[in-house]
Amino acid sequence: MANIKSAKKRIKVIETKTARNKAIKSAVKTYAKKVIASVNAGEKDTADANLKVAVKAIDKACAKGVYHKNTASRKKSTLATLVNNMA
C-alpha cells in the first residue's frame, strides 16, 4: 500500500477511471452483440438501427479515450461489413 498522500489519491482516481472505462467497453460490446444477433437472424432493418447505435457508442468511447482511434475504426468497419454483406 502506498504511503504518500498523492500516491493514495492516484490509486483512488485510477479505480474510478477503470470502472468508467469498463462500463463503456461493456456497453460497446453489448451493442455489437445486438448487431451480430440481428445479422444472424436476417433482420436488415433492425441490423441497420443497431449498427447506428453501436457506431455512436464506439465514437463516444473513442472520444473519451477508452479506445484508440484505429481500434474504434476497426470495430466500426467490422460491424458495417457484416451488415452490408447481408443477402
Secondary-structure element sequence?
HHH
Distance between the termini: 57 Å
CATH A-level architecture: Up-down Bundle
Looking at the structure, what is the overall shape? elongated
- Number of contiguous helices: 3
CATH domain fold name:
Methane Monooxygenase Hydroxylase, Chain G, domain 1
Query: How many beta strands in the DSSP annotation?
Result: 0
Structural class by SSE content? mainly alpha
Whole-number count of domains: 1
Beta-strand fraction estimate: under 5%
Rg is 17 Å
Mean pLDDT: 96
Largest sheet: none
Helix content: over 70%
Q: What low-confidence regions span 5 or more consecutive residues with pLDDT below 50?
A: none
Characterize the quaternary organization of these chains: single chain
Task: State the fourth-level CATH superfamily.
Answer: Ribosomal protein S20
